[in-house]
């Protein structure tokens, strides 16, 4: 455990191990998410109340889940940056923030387009939608802050503090539908209970969720590799990697 | 298949525009983040390749081109930690 | 863990706890503003202001929807199964509007404590099922009612 932790301190070791995981994450992620999406779009039964508009759920829920999970991971990385000063944690935050922002935009957008035919409005300032919008601003703030300093260490610390403080928004998003009156309905998937759906609906949804998690794993490792190459560019091993092409190709990625 | 025909699948009883807009934007933004990530990687690799060529003897005349050509801001690397004292 | 890191971790956790308490107290203080709508019990209990633009939400009571044949005027009762409030509305209702379904209406309470809505939105729950399953559930619920049994709540 501790050995693994220390190895993570070695950028070269990380670059290699990430390259070994990435093809699997990409392949499996594509297969699972596309299977879930095709199943959900074309084969899952329609909903008794909403008809076919509910099919938006097969991308709305994965992006919304992931937008929150990515923030949680970034907050953990933020604590590691502040306490242990591990550079890879900061590399992760920088690599993941733009992905998280795009996922949040997708969750908000698909939610709005879904809301129009079901609720009768694109947007309403209820607690769930508003806290999700705050999440987007947190992501944008983190991205902005990470570019605001020329000194890497100062930037890492500032970004980590903002990320960690912003994590209080995550339980607010999650429990907003239970704590307050909202237009948004409570969660269909709960960790402790059976989903309030038939299996023909929740199995494709689960596939899509798992697939997007894996795809996030792939894209964040790829982006972390890029950042590691940039930061360590003076070292011998990076020069060797660069001379060999730098793994620009999506499939290889490895050293 | 939950639909009787391909046109029924596209129309989705009137919900088609909503559903397909969502999926369209989803794939578009997924492609965007992938493209951005690949572009970042290429930039880092290309800048570095140029610097390595520059560093090798006999080609110092390309230094100027490299400085102006690559629109890159120099950022202190992790090796230069001693510069930054909290 | 070495003492310096332990101290830093404590600082970070204290910072986080402090922010969480501050946000928690703020949202608690503003809970009435964060709540999107008043439910019928709050309206019946006099918590909702009269002649002020507010939202009211709940379930459309079964058998309460009365449409005016000559116009888009409609009247229905919104209930939370302990109190209910009458809603007047003129306009197009969302597709999902139906008796037994959730709604959130924007408008004002008049002096008779009836709600005059300018907008009605549909609120659905977290249940998704194919039409056949929904019909089967309704059939078994009807049967259970005939036999006088208690049905589990869905």
Question: Could you walk me through the main structural features you see in this protein, from its secondary elements to its overall organization?
Answer:
The complex is a heterotrimer of chains A (255), B (86) and C (154). Chain A is mostly helical. Chain A folds into two domains: 10-45 and 198-255; 60-189. In chain A, 74% of the residues lie in helices and 0% in strands. In chain B, 62% of the residues lie in helices and 0% in strands. Chain C has 154 residues and is α+β, with helices and mostly antiparallel strands. Chains in contact: A-B, A-C. Chain A binds chain C through residues 45-50, 54, 57, 79, 82-84, 117-121, 124-127, 161, 164-165, 167-168, 172, 180-183, 185-188, 196-198, 200-201, and chain C through 5, 8-9, 12, 15-16, 19-20, 23, 27, 31, 34-39, 57, 94-96, 101, 104, 119-135.
Question: In summary, what is this structure?
Answer:
The complex is a heterotrimer of chains A (255), B (86) and C (154). By secondary structure, chain A is mainly α.
In total, the number of strands of chain A is: 0
Q: How much is the average pLDDT of chain B?
A: 75
What share of the residues of chain A does DSSP label as strand, in percent?
A: under 5%
Q: Indicate the structural class of chain A.
A: mainly alpha
- Gyration radius of chain B (Cα, Å) is 25 Å
Secondary structure blueprint with pairings:
The complex is a heterotrimer of chains A (255), B (86) and C (154).
Chain A: H1 2-7, H2 11-43, H3 57-84, H4 87-118, H5 127-148, H6 152-166, H7 169-179, H8 199-231, H9 236-243
Chain B: H1 6-11, H2 16-55, H3 63-69
Chain C: H1 3-29, H2 31-34, H3 40-44, E1 54-60, E2 66-67, E3 73-79, E4 84-90, E5 102-109, E6 115-123, H4 131-146
Question: Descriptors for this entry?
Answer:
heterotrimer, A: 255 residues, mainly alpha, 2 domains, 74% helix, globular, disordered C terminus, C: 154 residues, alpha+beta, 5-stranded mixed β-barrel, 4 helices, 34% helix
């Amino acid at each position: 455990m501790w050995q693994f932790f220390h190895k993570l301190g070695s950028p070269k070791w990380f670059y290699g191990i990430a390259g070994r995981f990435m093809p699997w994450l990409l392949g499996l992620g594509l297969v699972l998410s596309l299977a879930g999406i095709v199943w959900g779009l074309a084969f899952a039964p329609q909903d008794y109340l909403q008809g076919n508009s509910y099919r938006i759920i097969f991308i709305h829920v994965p992006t919304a889940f992931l937008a929150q999970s990515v923030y949680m991971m970034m907050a953990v990385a933020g604590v590691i940056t502040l306490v242990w000063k591990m550079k890879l944690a900061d590399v992760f935050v920088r690599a993941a923030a733009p992905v998280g922002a795009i996922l949040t935009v997708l969750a908000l957008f698909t939610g709005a387009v879904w809301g129009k035919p079901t609720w009768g409005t694109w947007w309403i300032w209820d607690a769930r939608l508003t806290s999700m919008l705050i999440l987007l601003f947190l992501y944008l703030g983190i991205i902005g802050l990470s570019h605001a300093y020329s000194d890497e260490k100062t930037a890492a610390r500032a970004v980590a503090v903002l990320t960690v403080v912003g994590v209080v928004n995550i339980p607010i998003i999650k429990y907003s539908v239970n704590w307050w009156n909202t237009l948004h309905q409570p969660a269909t998937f709960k960790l402790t209970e059976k989903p309030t759906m038939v299996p023909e609906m929740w199995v494709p949804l689960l596939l899509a969720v798992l697939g997007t998690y894996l795809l996030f794993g792939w894209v964040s490792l790829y982006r972390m590799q890029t950042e590691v190459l940039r930061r360590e560019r003076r070292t011998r091993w990076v020069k060797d990697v660069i001379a060999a092409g730098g793994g620009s190709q999506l499939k290889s990625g490895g050293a | 298949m939950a639909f009787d025909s391909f046109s029924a699948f596209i129309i989705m009883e009137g919900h088609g525009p909503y559903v397909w807009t969502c999926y369209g934007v989803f794939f578009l933004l997924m492609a965007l983040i992938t493209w951005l990530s690949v572009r970042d990687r290429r930039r880092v690799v290309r800048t570095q390749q140029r610097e390595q060529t520059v560093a090798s003897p006999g080609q110092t005349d390309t230094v100027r081109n490299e400085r102006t050509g690559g629109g890159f801001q120099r950022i202190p690397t992790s090796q230069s930690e001693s510069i930054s004292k909290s | 863990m070495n003492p310096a890191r332990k101290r830093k971790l404590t600082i970070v956790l204290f910072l986080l706890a402090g922010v969480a308490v501050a946000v928690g107290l703020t949202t608690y203080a503003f809970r009435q503003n964060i709540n999107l709508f008043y439910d019928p019990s709050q309206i019946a209990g006099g918590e909702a202001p009269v002649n002020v633009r507010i939202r009211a939400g709940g379930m459309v009571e079964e058998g309460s929807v009365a449409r005016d044949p000559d116009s888009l005027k409609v009247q229905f009762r919104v209930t939370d199964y302990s109190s209910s409030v009458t809603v007047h509305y003129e306009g197009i209702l969302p597709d999902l509007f139906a008796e037994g379904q959730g709604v959130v209406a924007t408008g004002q309470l008049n002096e008779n404590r009836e709600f005059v809505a300018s907008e009605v939105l549909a609120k659905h729950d977290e249940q998704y099922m194919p039409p056949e399953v929904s019909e089967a559930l309704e059939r078994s619920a009807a049967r259970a009612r005939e036999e006088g049994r208690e049905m589990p709540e869905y």
